[in-house]
Automatic annotation (TrEMBL):
The lineage of its organism: Bacteria, Pseudomonadati, Bacteroidota, Cytophagia, Cytophagales. It is a multi-pass membrane protein. GO terms for biological process: lipoprotein biosynthetic process. This is Phosphatidylglycerol--prolipoprotein diacylglyceryl transferase. It is an enzyme of class 2 (transferase). The gene is lgt_1.
Length: 277
């Protein structure tokens, strides 16, 4: 007899009633978890800045760069990689609510760009791009775990049919047949939680001596190698992906994994004595 888990969670926690003609405003698990990633991540960066003697005055600016870069990158990436026709016909949809559609590969591009812009003005304080990025990926891994759990609460990005005992039937998902499916969102969430502790342990081991690019490389290889294989367990996000042997998530993951391997290899090389991190 096949067992399964009946997933019938309401994605809304509660609704703020209409006030002065505005609203009502539903408060959803996804939004709460998304925000929690930034808030907890900020506290982690405060801890890191204190331990490494960096100015806490930069934390607010760094957080602002991260929020804007993540949201804009994820939104633009979704339309660029999955719905390019909308991006070019109606670019305003990128910034208009309800903000349905966020691409993790786009978020990576946005975060890298945001950190590069942030680091440009702070090299004198030792906050080079890799110094910031190697530490920021610790918080990004945790945020990724929260966001993927938010996808589970939304009953979205569902897996394919399975007969494993932990298969989920997503009762709130109206797009796909209600059969036992891989909880792919949960797989990715757990993977990101494990990565968070791995990266935190690596930073805690090296702190100021963290090899340049090591944590970024580990993050890229871990997240996107697993993403490549998890995609085999997921339903395609867009219809056009059915025409290709690999879906868009897998195609985009390959160069990121290769880049991560390059960073890890480079991190093993000694820095010039006068360069520092």
């Amino acid at each position: 007899m096949i067992s399964y888990i009946l997933w019938d969670v309401n994605p809304e926690i509660f609704t703020i009633p209409e006030i002065a003609g505005f609203g009502p405003f539903p408060v959803r698990w996804y939004g709460l978890l998304f925000a929690a990633g930034f808030l907890i991540g900020q506290q982690i960066m405060i801890h890191i800045f204190k331990k490494e003697g960096k100015s806490l005055d930069d934390i607010d600016a760094l957080t602002l760069y991260m929020v804007i870069a993540t949201v804009v990158g994820a939104r633009v990436g979704h339309f660029l990689f999955y719905q390019p026709e909308i991006l070019f016909k109606n670019p305003l949809e990128v910034i208009l609510p309800p903000y349905a559609g966020l691409a993790s590969h786009g978020a990576v591009i946005g975060i890298v760009t945001g950190l590069w812009l942030y680091a440009r003005s702070r090299k004198s304080s030792g906050q080079t791009f890799f110094w910031v990025a190697d530490r920021m990926v610790i918080t990004v891994a945790l945020a990724g775990a929260f966001i993927r759990f938010g996808n589970l609460m939304n009953s979205e990005i569902v897996g394919r049919y399975t007969d494993v005992p932990w298969g989920f039937i997503f009762m709130k998902n109206t797009e796909f047949t209600k059969i036992p499916r891989h909880p792919a969102q949960l797989y990715e969430s757990i993977s990101c939680f494990i990565l968070f502790f791995v990266l935190l342990a690596l930073w805690n081991k090296y702190k100021t001596q963290t090899p340049r690019g090591l944590l970024v490389g580990v993050f890229f290889v871990w997240v996107f190698t697993l993403r490549f294989f998890y995609e085999f367990l997921k339903e395609n996000q867009e219809a056009f992906e059915a025409n290709y042997p690999l879906n868009m998530g897998q195609i985009l993951s390959i160069p990121v994994v290769l880049l991560g391997i390059y960073f890890i290899v480079q991190s093993r090389k000694p820095l010039p004595q006068s360069g520092g991190k």
